[in-house]
Amino acid sequence: MSRRTRNIILGIIGIGIIGFIVFQSIPAGSISADFASPGNPPVTYTIPWDSPQTETLARSACFDCHSNETHYPWYSNIAPMAWLVNHDINEGRRKMNFSTNTHLFSDEMEKQIDSGEMPKNVYLPLHPEANLTAEQKKQLIDGLIATFGVDDFNGG
Questions:
Q1: Do 94 and 112 fall into the same domain?
Q2: Model's pTM, two decimal places?
Q3: Which structural domain, as residue segments, surrounds residue 71?
Q4: Is 61 found in the same domain as 96?
Q5: Which of 87, 93, 128, 144 has the most C-beta neighbours closer than 10 Å?
């Protein structure tokens, strides 16, 4: 490798490192409130689960985005992944939140779980416990129906 080529490569690497450092200093909330870290606000609702199995399935497949009990992975502190993680959590909690009795279960949620739309495909590679089998999806749906009842489909 020629000296000129090596200097070009080192210059590109240097610019990349500087860019990465600058990227990390941009507060996610300054881009949009959707990208700001929601943290874990207090849990204000205790779910009367129909069974420990339903709770385990819901916690493994749903709670990181749909509760105030999110387990933030290491990459959730590194932009731009932090922004994407925060966006999904903020959106998920707005649509349904197990910790606040907000829109707990609906026909739409049942369809999303059954069809594989939820949990999101982007979530599954780093969270294999959330990749439910067809049988587990059915158990989760049946358990959520038993827990929240048909009359309570739209939660608080």
A1: yes
A2: 0.75
A3: 32-152
A4: yes
A5: 144
